[in-house]
Design brief:
This protein is mainly α. The protein has one domain. The protein contains 13 helices and no strands. α6 runs antiparallel to α13 (277-297).
Length: 302
């Protein structure tokens, strides 16, 4: 069962996840201009995790045991190594706003993962309709041709982001009942450390670490990484993990309603990313599907 929490803290945490995470898509794009994606993300989470771990322990959080590390490692790999890894890899090839639109399907996969895991009843007609509508929006993005004046997203990128989103959903649902430390800050730090280590391994295996030259990093990219560490990780991800304890995974995943809009507008305003009728129509379809799924599924949450 979710823990009780002050309403004001819940609202503030949702606001952080809704708005800050929407802006991180552009920050990622700027960071990977001169830093390889897996290396950038790995360093980001290792630094943030180390700082948060030290802070949590200094405030009296007990030292975690093997069981805690096992659960945090599993969740960190699902959320960050695979989930965030798919995002940073994809942003080398597609606009930050379009990446956010494809990730907006997370609530859809979350509902399905909960059903498969036995924490939600079999999806009803409304949920199935929402799934089909959401997939229709994704199909519009990857459909060939110049529909509505915009080019399509590479199907491989859509597949990678879908896989990352499903991994994120599995991690979110599992974390709701995993054997994590009682301290949300300590649990978050451990997940960041594990996920960041996984990303650095990915950077090693892909050859990024060998080809990385720190001297080539621009001040612009360095500031973007700093923003991701402070706002995206220490504030945004911490708020997300805490919300998973005090709310349900399906409700927490509603950040996907707002993130795409924020990401598309920020990318258009600050990076001159193309804003076409195709993108806007796909965004409306995907969000409509997500809203339908989460609104019709709340009554069946256990």
């Amino acid at each position: 069962m979710p823990e009780a929490a002050p309403r004001s803290r819940v609202i503030a945490a949702f606001a952080a996840v809704y708005l800050i995470w929407g802006s991180t898509y552009l920050a990622i794009r700027v960071a990977i201009e001169t830093i390889p994606p897996f290396v950038m993300a790995g360093v980001r989470f290792i630094i943030a995790g180390t700082l948060l771990f030290a802070w949590a322990r200094a405030r009296g959080a007990p030292a975690p045991g093997r069981r805690h590390w096992a659960a945090a490692t599993f969740i960190g790999v699902l959320l960050l190594t695979l989930g965030n890894g798919a995002v940073v890899w994809s942003e080398q090839r597609v606009a930050s706003g379009l990446t956010a639109l494809l990730v907006a399907m997370v609530p859809v996969w979350t509902v399905l993962v909960e059903w498969v895991g036995g924490t939600r009843e079999r999806p009803g007609l409304g949920t199935v309709a929402g799934l089909l509508i959401g997939l229709g929006g994704v199909a519009l993005l990857v459909a060939p041709g110049q529909l509505a004046g915009g080019s399509r997203v590479d199907p491989l990128i859509a597949l990678v982001l879908t896989g990352g989103s499903i991994s994120w959903s599995i991690g979110s649902v599992y974390s709701h009942r995993a054997g994590l430390p009682r301290s949300p800050q300590l649990a978050t730090a451990m997940e960041m450390l594990a996920g960041g280590a996984g990303l650095l391994v990915a950077g090693l295996l892909s050859g990024e670490l060998a080809a990385f030259h720190p001297a080539a990093v621009t001040g612009r990219s360095a500031l973007a990484v700093l923003y991701l560490i402070v706002f995206g990780s220490l504030i945004g991800f911490s708020a997300f993990v805490w919300l998973l304890r005090v709310s349900t995974p399906a409700r927490v995943s509603t950040y996907a309603y707002v993130n795409p809009a924020v990401a598309v507008l920020v990318g258009w305003a600050f990076a001159r990313e193309e804003l076409t009728a195709r993108t806007l129509l796909a965004a409306a379809i995907i969000v409509a599907g997500v809203v339908l799924i989460t609104s019709t599924g709340r009554s069946t949450e256990h």
